[in-house]
Automatic annotation (TrEMBL):
The keyword Cytoplasm does not apply. It comes from Artemisia annua. PANTHER family: CHOLINE TRANSPORTER-LIKE (SLC FAMILY 44), CHOLINE TRANSPORTER-LIKE PROTEIN. The lineage of its organism: Eukaryota, Viridiplantae, Streptophyta, Embryophyta, Tracheophyta. This is Choline transporter-like protein. It comes from the Eukaryota. GO terms for molecular function: transmembrane transporter activity. Pfam families: Choline_transpo. It is found in: Cell membrane; Membrane.
Amino acid sequence: MMKIFVHLLTTYLAVLSVLCFWDKLVFWGVAFAVGSGLQFLYIISVIDRLPFTMLVLQRAVKMVWKLSDVMRIACAFMIIMCLWLALWSFGASGVVASSIGDSGRWWLLVVFSVSLFWTGAVLCNTVHVIVSGMVFLVLIHGGREAASMPHNPLLQSLRYAVTTSFGSICYGSLFTAAIRTLRWEIRGFRSKIGNNECLLCCVDFLFHLVETLVRFFNKYAYVQIAVYGKSFNHSARDAWELFQSTGVEALIAYDCSGAVLLMGTLLGGLITGTCAVIMTRIKHSDRVIMMGTTAVLMGMILVGLAMVVVESAVTSIYLCYAEDPLLIHRWDPEFFDQMSEMLHERLQHRSSRGMQVLNHNRPGDRIQETVSI
C-alpha cells in the first residue's frame, strides 16, 4: 500500500493537471503539473531510501496491529473528527451560499480552513501522544501482558493527553507539520545538487535554519510528553539532543516513513476533492474550485488521522532505540540487526563526507595551489 502511495501520487497529480488544462483552468493545471514534477524529483532523490523506509513501516504496523485498544481509540477519534467536520461544514456551506462577493467568501473560507487544519492537527497529535505513550510502554516493559506494565496504561495516556498535556499538544500543532515537510523537501534536493557550490550554499543556509527549528519543534517531543510529562519545547530539545548524542539522528534523516505517510494523506485528500468537484459541477459549476479545495482539506485531515497511528509507532521505535537499543532487540532481534547495520552504514557515510570536506578545505592544499599558479 505504501509503495502505491509513493508512485500513484505523481501519476494522479499529472492526470489532474491534464484535466485542468483540458477544462481551461490554467492556474490549477500549472499548479498540479509543478506538484507532480516536484513529487517525481523527490521520489528520484530518495529512491535508495525506500527499502529501509518500508521495513520500518512494516514493523510499526506489526506493533500497532497487536494493540487492539490503540485501534479502538483511533477509530473513536475519527468519529469525533467526523462529527466536527459535519458541524464545520454547516459554517462552510453558509459561507459558500452567502450573497457576499467572491473575495469576501474566499477570505472567510481561509479563516475556516485554518481553524479546521489546526483542529485536525490537534486531534492527530492527541492520538499521536496516546499511541506513542502506549507503544513506548509496551517496548520498555517487554510486552502488553508483562507483570511490570502499569494498570490500564491506555486510559492513563488518554487522560494525560486531554488534560495535563493538552496545552503542549495545541502549541506544537501550530508548527511541527510545516517545519517537518520543509525539512523533507530540503533534504531530498540537498542530496542531489552535486558540485554546484552556489546553489549548495543557499540550500545549506535553508537547511541549517530548518534544522534549528526542528530542534524546538519535532514530532518526537510528543513521546516524551506522553511518558515524562514535560513541556513541548523542553521535550523537543531533549529528544533531539538524545538523537544527536547517540547518532540515531543519522538514521532518522535517512528514513522517509513520515514523507511516505504524508503522500498517502495527500492522495486521500486529492481523491476526496476530485469526488467533490465532480458532484459540484452537476448543480453549481461556478463554485467548483471553492468546494474542491475545501473537500481536499477535509479528506487530508481524516486520512491523516488514520496515518498518525503508524507514524506514532515509528516515532516510539526510534526513541526507544536511542534510549536503549536492547529494548528493540528484545522485541524483534532481526529488526534490531537491520537497524544497527543501517546506522553503522550511515555513520560511516557521514564520517567519509566529513573527511572529504576537511581535505577539500585544508589550508595547505590551498597554499600549494596558489604556489603552483
